[in-house]
Amino acid sequence: MSTGSPELNALRGVGGLGLDAVRGIGALALVAARTLLGLPRLERRELTRALVQFGFDSLPLAMATAALAGVIVVLQSGLYIQRFGARAFLGWASGYGVLWEFGPLLLGLIMSARIGARNAAELATMQVGGQIEGLRGIGLDPFAILVAPRVVAMELSMLAMSTFTFMVAILFEAVAALLTLDLPLRTFFGTFAHMLSPLDIAGGVVKTGIFGLAISLVSTAVGLSARGGAQAVGRAAASAVVQSCAAIFVLDFVLTLVLAGWMA
After folding, report:
1. 81, 139, 165, 262: which sits with the fewest CB atoms below 10 Å from its CB?
2. pLDDT (tens digit, 9 = 90+) per residue, 90-119?
3. Which keywords, in A-to-Z order, does the entry hold (predicted)?
4. Which residues lie below 8 Å from residue 238, measured CB to CB, with a gap of 6+?
5. Distance between CA 101 and CA 76 in Å, rounded?
6. In 3D, which of 259, 240, 248 has the Cα closest to residue 214?
């Protein structure tokens, strides 16, 4: 039960949040540093397995999300495009929205639940079961064998999936514009090609890559910090999703400000 004045209790609450934030940043920095040190001794078989698990197996979900996102963007933006008589600009508007915002953000949120939760749960299971401590006991580095391959695989998977998801989303946007607004494909892709530059594509890929790095580091830090029994595994998976999503929204705000100003 709290004691003292409301102001003192509020100050304690703020101080506690500050300490938790510092601990979290410290844990992420430690995971990032240990992963970098483990890269030269990275376990290639674990990397291959992680690429299949995190990348290839996630492709159907990423493609389905991209297709739905493309159709929704056209249906939503089409209402305003028609109201202002600017149908010819739909290719530019919907392409810009997918490349800069909806594509990276939706892919990051979906993958935080798909690969972030799985990574945290697996590492938490090994941590609780003593397997990670066992590797240290026989002189092996868990970061080189388990962590570094997973971080690299998640980053490569996110970058590769961003390319596929952008292509699928734009293709479905064009088809949706043709079927719902009777906008010819030539007009859609004409404004898309003339008004968007390679920098717009690069901005979306950079965002997705940074989101992927955030998911991998957050889920790894959460998984390795798990303590207790089987319940700790469930808590780690749920916490990884929540913290990854929060990190993605904060990074999206910062990156949008920085990249939009730099590429303007």
Report:
1. 139
2. 888 888 888 888 888 989 999 999 999 999
3. Membrane, Transmembrane, Transmembrane helix
4. 117
5. 15
6. 248
